[in-house]
Amino acid sequence: MADIKNRVLIALDYDFTVSESVQQEPLFKEFFDRIRSVYPTYRVLERVEKLGFNKELPVWGLPVEVKDCCDYFKVSDEQQYKTPKGMGWMQQMLFDKDSIFEGKLTLEKFREVGQKGQVMSPGIPDGLWDLKKRYAARGVDVHFAIISIGLKEIIEASPINDIKDGEHLIDAIYGGEFYYDASGSISRLAYCANSFDKTKGLMQIVKGSPDLLDKLVPRSNYQFDYQNIIVVGDGFSDISYFSYARQEGGIPIAVYKLNDVNEYKKTYREVGERVDAILPRDYRPGSRTVREFDRIITRMVDRQCRFSQSLLHEYKRQRIKDEPTILYIEKHLGNCTECKDEGAYGVRFVPPA
After folding, report:
1. How many CB atoms are closer than 10 A to CB 231?
2. CA 299/CA 137 separation, integer angstroms
3. Are residues 182 and 310 both part of a single domain?
4. Residue 164 and residue 80 in one domain
5. 14 exposed, middle or buried (CB, 10 Å; 0-12, 13-18, 19+)?
6. Which residues, including other chains, have CB under 8 Å from residue 178's CB and lie 6 or more apart?
7. How far apart are the first and last CA of the chain?
């Protein structure tokens, strides 16, 4: 394994980051008629103005007809609305495993959904292999991880979890998991992942083990330098994850569907300047997204300056009001060729052509 300075981690979300749809969609499509018969409607929480100390109060809105298989997530939100986002749908599947899913929610079924039902983004997995091998030739280890609030069993069986010549493309996968009974059917929750757990997954990878999550680990023992980490997601649910990565010196990137203007605008509204780049979901060799990865990785491994990139980011967006801190940053910028022009990385918002 390369020295930590030449070790780069790219941590990817799954749904709408390396895939073009929700990973559970093929499963919900198969059982859509039963979903609609058991749950013909769903409701969403609305907020109403209320006099007194609490200015707003959440209340259920009027019932809405179930028209799409993925409305099952909204059904679960209604049934489990006090459950952290990302967890309720798994509990709902346990409730419905017989009435809707006919006892067919097995490990084998999830693997089938992963193998046959996933629509991957352009360049997955071959473009990632190409990136990894190009940098290996330069003595740089590029590692990939998947950190998702989806189901680990589906992700593990999907094309992203590729193996070539005995080498795994993905080093770690974090996601929700079920326990299974003797017949292979889901029996209870093993682990539920919510959007905040993405940060926890990243910390575990950096420290090297889940057992070290709550332990003080010297940075000299970390598996990755945070300044050599890129985190990639698709929007609002990744905001806290993006913020943590940036705070520690990493690079957050948001992606959107290739050539989709509306998705670009939606992503920009949701994450805006919380990320260092908004790029198309296109991982093919030579694509604009891969060229941006190249630019960032090259700067990471060639970097000499260790100035705080998160501090520089806040300065550029005029969020720092403390005069001594401003003077400190400006003095550094006057003397550092790496940071003077655009910082170590710079910001790239790439709309559809």
Report:
1. 26
2. 17
3. yes
4. no
5. buried
6. 90, 94, 105, 151, 153, 186, 187, 188, 189, 190
7. 39
**288 falls within a domain:** yes
CA-nearest of 72, 93, 91, 96 to 192 is 91
CA separation for the pair 91, 78 (Å, rounded): 12
Which tokens go with 271?
A: 């994450």
- Residue 171 phi/psi, 5° resolution? -85, -30
Tell me the pLDDT band of 353, cut-offs 50, 70 and 90. Answer: confident
CB 75 within 8 A of CB 91: no
Q: How far is 314 from 319, CA to CA, in rounded Å? A: 5
Q: Is residue 303 very low, low, confident or very high in pLDDT (cuts 50, 70, 90)? A: confident
Summarised one tens digit per residue, pLDDT across range 56-103 is 777 888 999 999 999 999 998 887 666 666 678 999 999 999 999 999
| Residue found under tokens 């209340």 | 59
Q: Average model confidence (pLDDT) for the chain?
A: 90
- pLDDT in the model for residue 308: 79
Round to whole Å and give the CA distance between 350 and 264. 9
Burial of 250 (0-12, 13-18, 19+ CB in 10 A): buried
Distance, CA of 339 to CA of 312 (rounded, Å): 8
pLDDT band at 330 (very low <50, low <70, confident <90, very high): confident
Report the 10 Å Cβ neighbour count for 199.
19
Domain of residue 176, CATH code: 3.40.50.1000
Q: Cis peptide leading into 63, omega within 30 of 0?
A: no
**Torsion sign over Cα 331, 337, 338, 340:** positive
Tokens of 22: 């929700």
Largest pairwise CA distance in the chain: 68
Establish if 114 belongs to a structural domain.
no
Domain ranges, residue 339: 4-23+120-349
Beta carbons of 23 and 157 less than 8 angstroms apart: no
